[in-house]
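Lab notebook page, bench 4
Experiment: in silico fold of construct C2
Operator: M.H.
Input chain length: 276 residues
Purpose: comparison with the prior construct
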Amino acid sequence: MIDVPGTALVTGATSGIGREVARQLAVNGWQVLLHARTDGEGREAVRGLAESGVDPARLEPVVADFARLSQVRSLAAAVAARPGGLRLLVNNAALVGPPRRTLTVDGNELSWQVDYLAPYLLTRSLVQVLRAADGARVVNVSSSLHRVGTLAWSDLNSSVRYSPIAAYAQAKLALTMFGVALAGRTGAELTVASVHPGVVRTRLLSAYGRAGAPVVDGAEAVLHAATAAVSPTSGGYYEGLLAAAPAHLVGDRAAVERLWQLTERILGLRASARAA
């Protein structure tokens, strides 16, 4: 465990793995920014965790609907402006899209935005804040399904062919590739790891089609990458506690760079050799 905890932002922290990660971080002395989609969900999560014995003073709800990129930008600005900095970002929020392809208000396929574009935007917006903290880490909650994902370069919004699982797998592949790109740009200043927490009994279990392990087991994998005294390999992919081989595209430098540049353009960010 990291000796001196700091402030952590955990997205998708109102249920499942995110909630358990937030709980254990708070119990171990972290100040936790508990991300929720709405004010009500955030207050309810804090209340429930407090009733379970967590000191509510260590929990601060923050709100953004990842289906609205304007709210992601507002969340990043609020986190960057608060005192105390940020030492840990856990990109956990995700969903499996509905049976019918659905577009966000920003014009993106829902799972592509919530599972990839939103965490990309949030992380890129907080890189400088994270860099200022000693030993800062970013943990992207990936999925073993990223290995069956493909990047439809000319149709990332799945307008020609859509299935909920394929869209989810594509987004998790992109998120894992983002981890490699960010690690390469930030070097020793920031540790970035992608973690498949296992098949766990959460709202995403339908994507795997079989019985899942307890939430606490999945949280253990994420917490290990986030807080173990020995940092994970930056840019590495882990399944549970162990390093694992990711999809071929994750190791394809040209594809990783192409995705970075394309995503920068989609989000209107400044493309650069080093993350700004």
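Observations: The chain has a mean pLDDT of 92. The CA atoms of residues 27 and 80 lie 24 Å apart.
Next step: discuss at group meeting.
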